[in-house]
Request: fold
Amino acid sequence: MERRDARTAALQALLHVDENEGYSNLVLNKTLEKFQLEPRDASLASAIFYGVLERRLTLDYYISLFCRAPGKKQSPVVREILRIAVYQILYLEKIPESAAVNEAVNCARENGAVKACGFINGVLRAMLRKKEKLRLPPEEDGTVRGLSVRHSCPEWLIRLWMRAYGGDCTKGILASLSGRPPVFARVNNTRISREKLSDLLRAEDVKPIGITWDPDALELQNTGSVTGLKSFQDGFFHIQDLSSQLCCRVVDPRPGERVIDVCAAPGGKSFTMAERMENRGEVLAFDKYKGKAGLIRQGAARLSLSAVKTGVRDAAAASDDLSVAQRVLCDVPCSGLGIIRRKPEIRYKPQHTLDSLPDLQYLILCRSAHLTAPGGLLVYSTCTLNPSENGENAERFLKEHGGFEPCPLCLPETISRVMDEPENELTLMPHIHGTDGFFIAAFRRRF
Reply:
């Protein structure tokens, strides 16, 4: 019979992410639902799961110091059990060291790794004897290897960011990858004011903090499970990072207009645009997959946003005859390098998985250009920090589409540029703007 404890739950979730490349939040939720743990154990499983994901390369560095043959490949189960134990020993002060070691051995015995019990016990006992002398490469070690070990980020990704944004900015990005990211909400202004929502949230023991540059944005602290809040269930807000809220501000949809969101799932930007339009007009929210289009439909229903119309459509291959819209948003599929702090597993994707993305994104942008009415606005966005997916695609589009011109962005005074880029583009950085890493480019159709 499978053990139903926090460490086994964390192990199963980590193995699922490794083997099936699932999204961390979805994998953990499904695992916790399966294990039916007590709240305290569920919290421990979550802490271990995310802690190991965030610090994988750092943990592997420590483990390698105590393996007689560090180059020898370990089985996935053994590797994750060691990471879980070392994470508890080094980062969870309330867990007794002896418990971390004993539970690791028990976990191996009950998860098909009996032959590795002695090896696991030996590595962990050796580490405990040297624990006080363990050191990471010092900060003054400016090598890519040193940064990789300290921040648990692959060397190829660090090099990419250094080439694109420079050393200081890269160190800032790396520093932003750890810790819990802020939670931001978009007020459903068609149903409630920010002030009244703030009162409701405080009554639910949530601390709301107003965002100065947007009257319908809030930071939420002490949230617990957001979906469990009555104010959420009543459709008074949805969760959305400030970067996406700023993107919708750039689109600037007006009441009564027709807007097309070609890659809309899970629907947050469509909802915000409909709210900015006072739920008057039409927001066509499409996704390639029926299930994801269904999620958009459910979200719009919860928020009572009748202006949002959903449909299944492949933005890269559509041959439909959709009528043009005043505003078109292409929030394209991307590598996600700007949201690593929310989905830590993204950083471990192989570099080659990025290779085909810029061409796909550019294809979607080009296929969506004809949906933009003359004089209308076409906005391209990603949640990544990778020039080939961002500025290079925007520059190429203008070179190859004479019917469009760059449309300068009208930004809040508090949003400053951190790099040299055209007036119609903006790159948002987590460590500077407090948002996800994000890119926005705007184009006006001339004829």
Summary: The chain has a mean pLDDT of 95. The chain has four domains: 6-133, 146-175, 184-239, 242-445.
